[in-house]
């Protein structure tokens, strides 16, 4: 049973949409936003039972949430999702582009389908959601868009080519959108997690040697939690960050700065 953590009403009156929120980081963001009194639309594709249970438990604890199934790579589905959210909650103030996939493949073995699906979820979907959401935010006088990118928006890593290319693209999508949407009072920022303990890292988490190696290359010597990412997303979603746009916030225990002395 998910209990509602006590917040200070930081998102009271705001409506937020979090994509891919049936697991991991998105799940933690939905919980954190609900605790701060936002109305939260929980998008999911897969993890449907968890998404619906999360919405029910949060509502049982006094929150206003609803779960919506939508594939965010599909333009028509995104349009319908945003329309449903506005119909249900009256407006849209915050979009978190969180849905993502990752496939490890050496460059010479990447097949076209892997490339296309990674780019579709990790780059095209944030664009589709951003465009649909920003059209609504324009009507209501502004908003905040937060993309969950990755240290790989900046940090190359063997076997991560499609993922790094998509997240690097997401960095420039964010910067361009921040410029174009600023006159509409819509802020756009990225949160770039490092190694966070979620289902996307199931293979790593199941391998003690990999976990050990990860701890060696993360300056803070541990993986992060979804809640630690959600905290920074909350800041960027809230009016506390009212003068912040076009930036990436790394939540990575220093991993992107990793270097070994000679
Ligand atoms: P996760 O696998 O738990 O979450 C990803 C979610 O996206 C899942 O619930 C999945 O069902 C959903 N999803 C996938 N395709 C979708 C689609 N087409 N439409 C709607 N939803 C879809 O893993 P996570 O770690 O919570 O990942 C969340 C985000 O954080 C991703 O964008 C990921 O790239 C990013 N990230 C994670 C880490 C990490 O170490 N966990 C590090 C850097 C970045």
Structure description:
With 262 residues, this protein is of the alpha/beta class. The chain has a single domain, classed as NAD(P)-binding Rossmann-like Domain (Rossmann fold, 3-Layer(aba) Sandwich), CATH 3.40.50. 44% of the residues lie in helices and 15% in strands. It has eight helices and seven strands, in the order E-H-E-H-E-H-E-H-E-H-E-H-H-H-E. It has a seven-stranded parallel beta sheet, sandwiched between helices. Helix 1 (24-35) crosses helix 8, helix 3 (75-89) packs parallel to helix 4 and helix 4 (112-140) packs parallel to helix 5 (161-181). The longest helix is centred in the middle third of the chain and has 29 residues, at 112-140. The radius of gyration is 18 Å and the shape is globular. The chain starts with 14 loop residues before the first strand and ends in an 11-residue tail after the last strand. The mean pLDDT is 96. The structure holds nicotinamide-adenine-dinucleotide (NAD). Nicotinamide-adenine-dinucleotide binds next to helix 1.
- Structural class call reads alpha/beta
Distance between the termini: 50 Å
Full CATH superfamily name: NAD(P)-binding Rossmann-like Domain
Helix content: 40-55%
The main β sheet shows up as:
7 strands, parallel
**Broad CATH class:** Alpha Beta
Integer average pLDDT: 96
Multimeric state: single chain
Topology pattern, helix = H, strand = E: EHEHEHEHEHEHHHE
Shape: globular
Any guess at the CATH architecture? 3-Layer(aba) Sandwich
Distinct ligands, ions and cofactors found in the model: nicotinamide-adenine-dinucleotide
């Amino acid at each position: 049973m998910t209990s509602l953590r006590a917040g200070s009403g930081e998102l009271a009156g705001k409506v937020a949409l979090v994509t891919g929120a049936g697991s991991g980081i998105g799940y933690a963001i939905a919980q954190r936003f609900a605790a701060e009194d936002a109305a939260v639309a929980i998008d999911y594709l897969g993890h449907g039972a968890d998404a619906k249970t999360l919405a029910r438990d949060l509502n049982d604890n006094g929150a206003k949430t609803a779960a919506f199934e939508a594939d965010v790579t599909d333009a028509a589905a995104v349009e319908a999702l945003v329309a449903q959210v506005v119909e249900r909650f009256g407006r849209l103030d915050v979009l978190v582009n969180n849905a993502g996939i990752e496939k490890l493949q050496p460059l010479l073995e990447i097949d076209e389908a892997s490339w296309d699906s990674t780019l579709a979820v990790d780059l095209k979907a944030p664009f589709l959601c951003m465009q649909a959401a920003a059209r609504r935010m324009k009507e209501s006088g502004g908003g905040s868009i937060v993309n969950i990118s990755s240290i790989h928006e900046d940090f190359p890593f063997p076997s991560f080519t499609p993922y790094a290319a998509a997240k690097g693209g997401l960095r420039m999508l964010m910067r361009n959108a921040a410029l174009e949407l600023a006159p509409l009072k819509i802020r756009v920022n990225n949160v770039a997690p490092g190694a966070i303990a979620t289902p996307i890292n199931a293979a790593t988490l199941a391998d003690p040697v990999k976990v050990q190696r990860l701890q060696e290359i993360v300056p803070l010597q541990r993986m992060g939690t979804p809640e630690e990412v959600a905290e920074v997303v909350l800041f960027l979603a809230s009016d506390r960050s009212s003068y912040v746009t076009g930036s990436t916030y790394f939540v990575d225990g220093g991993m992107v700065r990793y270097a070994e002395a000679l």
